Amino acid sequence: MIAEQSHITDIKTPDRSQESSFGKKIKKSIRIKERIIKYFFAVNGAMALVFIILIFVFLFKEGFKALEHIGFLDFIYLDQVQADGSVKRVYEWYPTSAEARYSLVPLILGTLLTAIPGTIISTIFGVAAGIYLSEVANPKLKEFLKPMIELFAGIPTVVLGFIMLAVGASFFNDLLNPVNRLNAFIASLGLSFVIIPIIASLTEDALHSIPNDLRMASYGLGATKWQTIRHVILPAAFSGVSASIILGFGRAIGETMIVLMASGNAANITANIFESVRTMTATIAAEMGEVSQGSDHYYALFFIGIVLFTITFFLNLIAEIVISKMRKKNTF
Amino acid sequence: MEQLKQKHKDVQGIIFINLIRLLFLVLVIILLLLLGKIVVEGSGILSLEFVFDSPRNNMTKGGIGPAIFGTIAVTFIMILFAVPLGVFSAIYLNEYAKDTFFTRVIRTSINNLAGVPSIVFGLFGLGFFILFIGRNIDDVLETGLLFGQPALLWASATLAVLVLPIVIVSTLEALNSVPKTHRDASYGLGATKWQTIKHVVLPQARPGILTGTILAISRGAGETAPILFLGAAFFLPNLPVVDLCIGDYCIPMINPTEQFMYLAYHIFILATQSSNPTKTLPIQYGSTLVLIALTFLLNITAILFRYRFRKILGRL
What we know:
Distance between the termini of chain B: 55 Å
Number of domains of chain A: 2
CATH architecture of the largest domain in chain A: Orthogonal Bundle
Largest interface: A-B, 91 and 96 residues
Helix content of chain B: over 70%
Largest sheet of chain A: 2 strands, antiparallel
Number of strands of chain A: 4
Shape of chain A: globular
CATH superfamily of chain B: MetI-like
CATH topology of chain B: MetI-like fold
Oligomer: heterodimer
């Protein structure tokens, strides 16, 4: 479409400029001006790309110094010499102790222990909400409910963290009697508030983009509404729905404030969802303010940033590939 | 037999569809309870005094005035960075660029920029804006340590990068919805590309661009993680304001090199580092209510704007 337009102007401009020499002069200055404007916009257009590259460069510039100072294996474990001379392999994050320990294992486990349950809860509610909005709710109600979902997606995460800390933790402390009052479960519930709207609205988009012909054909064959949803709509929208779950998972891994406030922030190695954990994001948020610039600890935090950036970057990329494949498939 | 099977399957359908309805209802109820709790607990303390007053007595009394001022100042400067950049970027992508490998890479980066964790933006702001740009400005201007430390300017710049995808995507949608026939009519009258964009496309896309701007402000005002170590302060006795004097005439200006209080950060600090949690709790709920009200108001405005915008364009 755009190519076509510039083609039209390209043909017309030389035609007119031959009318008089005066016209030609104006046209030339205008053409130069147009070209300058075009390059101005092109420079701005590349900004998103420039910033992605800058984030990459500056994260890696600081983070890779961690590898010089600390060493790659130290990010996984440390062989600690005990008092009796034996060697004990520890997986701990204790960057401020005399013998600093920089194992990312507890942090990665903590991240997964909040992000995976959060994504599972959000998938159940989010996909259900998406199906409800697209297939079940009547169109008038939908017109009201869809902006509502958008509205809830806009709740600042610090508010959700505060609510989980002040209300949610006490409620579940009485109900479930967890090991720690603030734990991975509380954090994952808080995360669901962020991810459910994402999964719901993307699922709704995916279901909505399924052509109506498919529904009509299914009904024509005598299928009920549920049979149509279960056997026609959901399989057709499968890639879109999975992309929304991947994006939600990426968001759960990158979320900071909720886990910082509600997960308890103890770097335990545990598979118990009712224990306190410490995530990668919360570690950066909690420790960056107090660390001295240029210390090993400082570079280690940037290294965590690299890990986070890489994970979420690839999750986003996968989701985008899945979505673009879906778009190609769905253009009937 | 056939009919029996059919009936059996219908029962399954009724169960599942009602289960979906139930899940949605539970979701709505939980969200309303959450909002209700904030409104009930927060509205008690809410008054004009609370909104404009400074915190007093170790945050157990007084209001959130400086935090609101800081939020407005930061988002204002953020918009100055993000909107021109985002709008120009979208104009290039929608009006000038052809579908090449380069533009596809740009579109992918926009999506990926939107997916970068907010805390990573904080690291980026520290590494790039403060340590690289700020320190270099200090070296060149020989100002001592002025720009090369956490400050309002760098928090705004970092948030601007964070909200850039929001501005770009909204503007792209707005530009895309301007009918091609209008552009053709403009070209037909002999207008150049830039004249067409300036006089035909942009005026029609203005509501869409405004929607993106409002959404960006709402997102920026709610973010906490990126500004944690970019100059957000626990408590400041003075507002980050400086008198800009030209001759004898002085006007107060936002001081971009100072630290600032921030509403979202204020909630975080009160929730986690309060010296007296029972006494600060009402203030905390009050701040939360103000922040929620602010973001909801902005988002509702944006949604209504977009709704009307789509309706108008639908009529064309």
